[in-house]
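Sequence only, no structure available. Ideas?
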Amino acid sequence: PIQIRASDEPFAVHLEDVRYKVEPLYDYTLYGLVVSYQHHDGDRMLHRLWNDHLNITDLCVVWGRNATDLDLNTFDFWNGPFTCFFRTRNNAAWRQFDQTGISNNHLITDHGYLRDLIDNVQIGDQIRLQGWLASYGNDDGFHRGTSTTRTDEGNGACETIYVTDFDILSSMANGWR
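Reply:
I predicted one. Tokens follow.
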């Protein structure tokens, strides 16, 4: 990922009759391989409780040698609520896996075109996304921050990204998916 301190001012967006305040912290670009995802519609579970319609998808993404040098088929990847998990029974693969080369990304945007693109993401897609690492909240008192480093772990280690540009660069659209 490419991360540069942002100089952008906080801004408001409105979605589903909810006003959100977004605070850009870093300009952010990520190239990676999607290994797991969970789409959100804002009408279920904690998203409904928090009135959070802005967070549309959590993407678990690997990059670097994790995406190019490892047999990812030896791993299991899955998303829980706001989390990305992975495991393998292959000890050699576990030792080679760079745990700073994986992230769970909370994607937020109010742009319909980007929301539609992100909704089409599938496992095996190579993506490029740009935007801001950002914190955000709504007038109901909900607030979410973001990680600003790839070396943290556990609760709060996810990147929250206000997406301004998104591309599926290559899709693994074949019978094996």
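The chain has a mean pLDDT of 88.
Hope that gets you unstuck.
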